[in-house]
Amino acid sequence: MSVEQIKTVAVVGAGLMGHGIAQVFAQAGFKVLLNDVNKTILDNALSAIEADLKRFTQYELLSESEAKAALSNISPVLDLKEAGGCADFVVEAVTENVDVKRSVFSTLDQSAPPHTILASNTSGIPITLLAAATKRPDKVVGTHFWNPPTLLQAVEIVRGEKTSDATILTAKALLEKVGKKPVIVNRDVPGQIGIRILYAIIREATSLVEKGVATPEDIDTVIKETLGTRFPVLGVFDLVDLSGVNILHAVSKIVYKDLDNSTEPHNIVKQMVERNELGVKTGKGFYDWSKRSASEVMRLRDEYLMKILRERQSR
Ligand SMILES: NC(=O)c1ccc[n+]([C@@H]2O[C@H](COP(=O)([O-])OP(=O)(O)OC[C@H]3O[C@@H](n4cnc5c(N)ncnc54)[C@H](O)[C@@H]3O)[C@@H](O)[C@H]2O)c1
Of 19, 67, 195, 237, which is the most exposed, with the fewest CB atoms less than 10 Å away? Predict the structure, then answer.
């Protein structure tokens, strides 16, 4: 199926990721069928989308009429079979549970037209395992959006063992059409690209805290004020080539053997979980959230990302 044939997209799961993914397709003019298990979740998702579209207009990323049109492109659908039955492309964004996802894929496979591509937003479940719940493994693919999906541009397209080249090409063309920057993950490795790199950073950062080398706050300052500031323009291989592969070679010889290589969660993390110090949701994690506002942190994040998006659009 070519991308031109895709008119209707179903998004299954209207939670944190699903509602944002639905908005991405709706803003690009696709008819979107948004599915979840009950009406309250769907109502909340639509309210969240409406509020987010309003912010897009405030940041002049959309006109009022474009925001209105985007919202009208989304139809809440309670019946999964009905959502799948009318869709040319489906993005599954339900809870990260292999049994739940496999059941959704099996139902979608039975209800969706033969040409329909079934994509999953899973962060870690092998695409091959989800594809095996269907009779169309060649048309099952990973499309890993990042949070918030409306503001972060890269989407990892993950090839399962049986995903066809045609499916990869159509998914890529579709994501480009909605303004994303798709990248291809050629092997179905756990954590794809971004999560693997993020967890390599988190593993080393946690180890530095555990060894008492630095505080979480100071480590975050280094991330935000050095690496993070440069990353929008310089990826890791840009950096390496600018400084020289010989420098990479020399520093690797000194640093690699001292880097953390834990294969299990760190003891401090195990202890925090035992003490129910889970972060924002219990008021304490690496930071004391009684002294910080999570909603303010998220507001700053979205404001920053909106500014970047506006700057890029005006270039
Ligand atoms: N949260 C993130 O930052 C993030 C980032 C990238 C990818 N992901 C992945 O995206 C997926 C969704 O994550 P989320 O954070 O949006 O979760 P979430 O818990 O916010 O939303 C999941 C939604 O799926 C719905 N659901 C569960 N079973 C269903 C079913 N059978 N049919 C229809 N809907 C069903 C739930 O009611 C819920 O609304 C997961 O696979 C997750 O790993 C999450």
Answer: 237
CA 113 to CA 91: how far, in whole Å?
A: 15
> What is the pLDDT averaged over residues 11-28?
98
Chain centre distance of CA 9: 17
Alpha carbon of 143 to ligand 1 centroid (Å) = 13
Name the H helices within the chain. 16-27, 39-58, 64-72, 80-85, 98-111, 127-131, 165-177, 194-210, 216-222, 228-230, 236-243, 245-255, 267-274, 294-314
Type and span of the H or E element at 75: strand 74-77
Nearest to 260 by CA among 304, 213, 314, 204: 204
* Residue 108 CA: distances (Å) to CA of 30, 88, 134, 245: 19, 11, 8, 48
- Measured in angstroms, how far is the CA atom of residue 95 from the centroid of ligand 1? 4
Probe ligand 1: pick from 11, 16, 46, max atoms within 8 Å of CB?
16
Residue 309 banded pLDDT, cuts 50, 70, 90: confident
CA-101 nearest atom, ligand 1: 31
Question: What does the alpha-carbon distance between residue 135 and residue 161 come to, in Å, rounded to a whole number?
Answer: 14
Q: Ligand 1 mean position to 246 CA, how many Å?
A: 44
